[in-house]
Amino acid sequence: MSGILVKYVLTAARRDKLFLSLLAIMIVGSFVSLFLSSSAVVEKEQFSVVYLAGSLRLLGLLGLVLFVVFFIRRSFDARDVEYLLTRPVTRNSFVLSHAAAFSILSAFVSISLCAGLGFIAYNIGNPQGVIYWSTGVICEYLLIVNVALFFSMVLSSPVAACLSTLGFYILGRLMGQLLFVAKNPSDGIPGYQILTTIFQAISALFPRLDLMTQTSWLLYGVDGIKDYIFILVQTALFLALVLIATLVDLRRRQF
User: Fold this and answer.
1) What is the phi/psi pair of residue 235, to 5°?
2) What is the pLDDT of residue 151?
3) pLDDT of amino acid 19
4) Which of 37, 123, 143, 183 has CA 20 to 30 A from 8's CA?
5) Mean residue pLDDT across the chain
6) Dihedrals phi, psi of 219, to nearest 5 degrees
């Protein structure tokens, strides 16, 4: 891994005003969330925490995905990748350096987001649940930015890479509902058994993102530590799998 490459990516994020853009859009999202929560008849404070947590998490994720995808595709289009690989930088070092830089960015954004939310929700919700939820956001961001790195390396179109990353994220968030439907079959729908088999096969390839950041943690805490350990192990396994796939793709690529 090259420290110079890591610093280069972080400098590019600062030059592209990633942090200022995320800060601005999160402020707007916060005001919108607080406005929507004001329509609640009861438990307005709890609703404000829920709306705020969901909107900030999604906005931060979208900003990171867009930056990762367009940065990598811009590097390919400007032939920066080819130039770097002619220097004393191996392909493995190239991938790992970018993955480390994007992971640092995601950790910084998620920690900043969670610190702001924790300041608001600490006295309203469950303090321990806020900490667990914040750790889940960090794991989710780490995984998704590296998935975005993979798709931006594999797909030549930045739009296709963004949509693929968001599709991966949405499927991961919906996996719990899909598995619930698959385990409760309905005989009235033709071809339902085939769909059930397909969903069960897909579930083996996608992480359970719906378990990572449960909004109920913010208000009621975590019921058991087993599910939380599963989240950490799942993040490590899928993160390693995505990095290996990215390394294999770049090593097989001909420039």
Assistant:
1) -60, -45
2) 92
3) 80
4) 143
5) 80
6) -100, -35
- For residue 139, which amino acid is it? C
Would you say how long the chain is, in residues?
Answer: 255
Local structure of 212: helix, strand or coil: coil
Q: Extract the tokens encoding 69.
A: 């995808």
Residue 163 has pLDDT above 90, yes or no: yes
Residues 6+ apart with CB under 8 A from 108: none
The CA distance from 233 to 237, in Å, is: 6
Helices 91-121 and 44-77 cross at an angle (nearest 10°) of: 160
Cβ-based neighbours of 228, under 8 Å, separated by 6 or more? 132, 222
**pLDDT recorded at residue 161:** 92
Taking alpha carbons only, the member of 27, 82, 87, 94 closest to residue 59 is: 27
The conformation of residue 223, written as its DSSP 8-state character, comes to S
**Which residues, 6 or more positions from 45, have their beta carbon under 8 angstroms from its beta carbon?**
124
Place of tokens 């378990």: 211
Closest by alpha carbon to 212, among 226, 228, 225, 196? 228
State the number of CA atoms in the 13 A half-sphere of 154 facing the CB: 19
Give the residue ranges of DSSP H helices in the chain: 3-15, 18-37, 44-77, 80-86, 91-121, 127-154, 158-183, 192-203, 215-220, 225-252
Query: CB atoms < 10 A from the CB of 52, how many?
Result: 24
For the chain, which residues make up each domain, given as ranges? 3-252
Q: How far is CA 153 from the centre of its chain?
A: 17
